[in-house]
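I am hoping you can look over what I have pasted underneath with an eye to the fold:
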Amino acid sequence: MALKKCFECGNQVSTTATACPHCGAAPKKTSGFRKVLLIIAGVIFIPPFLVLFAAMFFSGSSSTTDSSQEEFEKKIEERYQALVRRHKAGDPEGAQGHITQFQKGGRMNYKDVSSIAKSVRTMAALKQAQSIDPADTRKLAEAYANLARLEPENAEHQSKAVRYASEWKEGERHPPCSLLGCEVGASPAEGN
C-alpha cells in the first residue's frame, strides 16, 4: 500500500482510500487526459533539448580536438626541426634521441625522417670506424662492413671492408711478432 499527501490537509493518505481519514476530503484523481498530455509534451519538448545539448557538447569537443591536433602537429614539427639541426651539426647522438621519439610515436614517415635516420646511423658508424685503432683490423673490417650495409652504393666503404677483412685474415695466419715474443723486424721463425 502506497501513501500520498492529501491535497486538502497535507497528511499521509493511502492511495486506495476513498477519503482522507484526517479531513474527509475525497482524493483528487488525475485524469487520463492529463497523463497523455504530459507524455505528448515530453515527447515534443525533450528531444530538441537533447539534440541542442549534444550539438553544444560535440561542437565544443570538436574545437578542442582540433586545437589539440594542431598543438600535436606543432610539437612534431618542432621535434623535426631539432632533428634537422642536430643532423646538420653532425651530432648523431643528439639526432638519435629525436629519431627514437619519432619511432616511438610511429611517425618515421613524417617528412624525410627515415632518410635522416639512415644518414644519422651512417654518421654514427663512420664516427665509430674512425675512432678504432688502425692496428685492430678485425674491428675495422666489421665497422666498414656495417658502413657498406648502410650505404651499399659507397664503393669506398666496400673496398675498406674488403681490405681490412683481408688484413685481419692475413694477421690471423701470421700473428705479429709481439704476440710470439720475437724482435721487431725479425721473422717469427728467427725468434730470440
User: Anything to note?
Assistant: Strands lie at 3-5, 12-14. The radius of gyration is 43 Å. The chain has a mean pLDDT of 82. DSSP finds six helices and two strands in the chain.
